[in-house]
Every structure is written in structure tokens, then in C-alpha cells.
Design goal:
By secondary structure, the protein is an alpha/beta fold. It has one domain: Rossmann fold, CATH 3.40.50. The protein contains 4 helices and 9 strands; from the N terminus they run H-E-E-E-E-E-H-E-E-E-E-H-H. Strands 1, 2, 3, 4, 5, 6, 7, 8 and 9 form a 9-stranded mixed sheet that branches. Helix 2 packs across helix 3. The radius of gyration is 22 Å and the shape is elongated. About 9% of the residues have low confidence.
Length: 229
């Protein structure tokens, strides 16, 4: 009899927990997350690190353009709640085009380069390169950027996807040096749900994408040659 009571009590507790969780999710209209990459833990390849003449030169960073095929570009993801409702995810402090540009800026600073403080505007065409102090400019576009979470009763599945086009150009010559597409993703299952974890997954994907931009030694060589001319 005592054993049956324990089983019934546990079932009631689970039911109450699920019912309470569904009620909470129904009241949530949106989530806001921080999307940023600080490069603190980045391991910079030796061939990319600044040295000699490259230490004093300035690299300009252009604010990325958002070419995602979505209706509302303020939305950067969604959470599927336990009751199957879809709740949008917004960027809290920095919009995606700035977050990506700032991430590249921090990575290059970690590599020892001087980077212009202000992000410039550039449509990635040679004939419209902006004027500036930098000898090299790096810009690009965001083709895909999304973080999702499928909330379960006992576990939550997070996933982030990112696809970028990155363009590196010689400002002095007005010529594009390199153009590439990079993709990255990050995923995790966790027993807890939080906006911090949503932002963390997207930041991880951004860090991986930036790393891929500069993993080709030939790209680093082109940047250094343009800077030291």
C-alpha cells in the first residue's frame, strides 16, 4: 500500500511539473539573447599572427550585410515550446551584422593587428570601396544565421547554424584579394533551458566560422603582403 502511494505521488508530481511548465511557456512572447564573440579562447595560427611591418598597419572592418531570406531580420531564431508553440528569438544588444563584424575585429586583435575602431559601410564591390586609414578591408554578408531550441520535459536540444560570405580587399589598389564562403554549426542537449545557452550556441558557431575564414595560410599571406606594400 505504501509503495502504491509513492508511485501515485510521483506521477502527480510529474503531471504538475509538466502542467506548470506548459503554462509558463504560453506566457512567453519572445526571447532575447546576447550574440557576441570575444576571441578570448581563440588559438591564433602562427602564420596569421602579426609581426614586423604588419604590427603598425590598420585593417578596416566593414559592417556585414544581412541577405537572409526571412521576413523579419530582427529575428535570429526560435524556440519550440513543450506545447508546440513557436517563440521568436531576438538579439538583445547588438544586431547580427555588427556582431559578425565585431567578432572578426576581436579575432584580428588577438592576432596582434591594429583594427579601425569604427566599422565602415561597404557593398563588397571594388568600385565602391570606402576611403579609410586601413590598407586592407574585410567585409561580407550573412546568408544564414539561426539558433533554435526544442524544449522537452527533461532535456532541451539547442542548435545554431551560420553561413557567411567573406570578402578581403586591398584598399590601396582597390582590388579584391579573396572571397570565400564559410559555414559552421553548434549543437547541444541540456537538462536546463536559458537564454544564455541560446546565445552561447550562436556565439560558438560564430567563433568557428571566423576561424575558418583565416585557416588558409594563403589568405593570411595575401593580407600581410597588402599591409606591407
Amino acid at each position: 500500500m505504501k509503495k502504491n502511494c509513492v508511485v501515485v505521488f510521483n506521477l502527480i508530481a510529474v503531471f504538475v511539473l509538466i502542467t506548470f511548465s506548459l503554462g509558463i511557456s504560453a506566457e512567453t512572447s519572445h526571447y532575447s539573447i546576447n550574440m557576441q564573440y570575444g576571441a578570448e579562447k581563440a588559438v591564433i595560427p602562427v602564420y596569421l599572427k602579426a609581426g614586423g611591418k604588419t604590427l603598425g598597419a590598420i585593417i578596416s572592418i566593414a559592417e556585414f550585410t544581412d541577405t537572409r531570406q526571412v521576413d523579419d531580420k530582427k529575428i535570429i531564431g526560435q524556440v519550440r515550446e513543450r506545447d508546440d508553440t513557436q517563440v521568436p528569438v531576438f538579439s538583445k544588444d547588438v544586431i547580427p551584422v555588427k556582431a559578425v563584424a565585431n567578432g572578426i575585429k576581436e579575432y584580428l586583435k588577438k592576432a596582434g593587428y591594429k583594427v579601425a575602431d569604427k566599422n565602415v559601410q561597404w557593398d563588397l564591390k571594388e568600385e565602391t570601396m570606402p576611403k579609410g586609414k586601413g590598407k586592407v578591408i574585410i567585409g561580407g554578408s550573412i546568408e544564414e544565421l539561426e539558433v533554435t531550441c526544442w524544449r522537452g520535459v527533461f532535456s532541451h536540444s539547442y542548435k545554431a547554424n551560420l553561413k557567411l560570405t567573406v570578402v578581403i580587399a586591398d584598399l590601396a589598389k582597390g582590388k579584391i584579394l579573396h572571397k570565400s564562403k564559410v559555414e559552421s554549426s553548434s549543437s547541444r542537449d541540456d537538462v536546463s533551458f536559458s537564454e544564455e545557452e541560446l546565445g552561447g550556441q550562436l556565439s560558438t558557431a560564430l567563433g568557428d566560422a571566423i576561424k575558418k575564414v583565416f585557416e588558409d595560410e594563403a589568405v593570411a599571406q595575401k593580407i600581410k603582403e597588402a599591409i606591407t606594400q
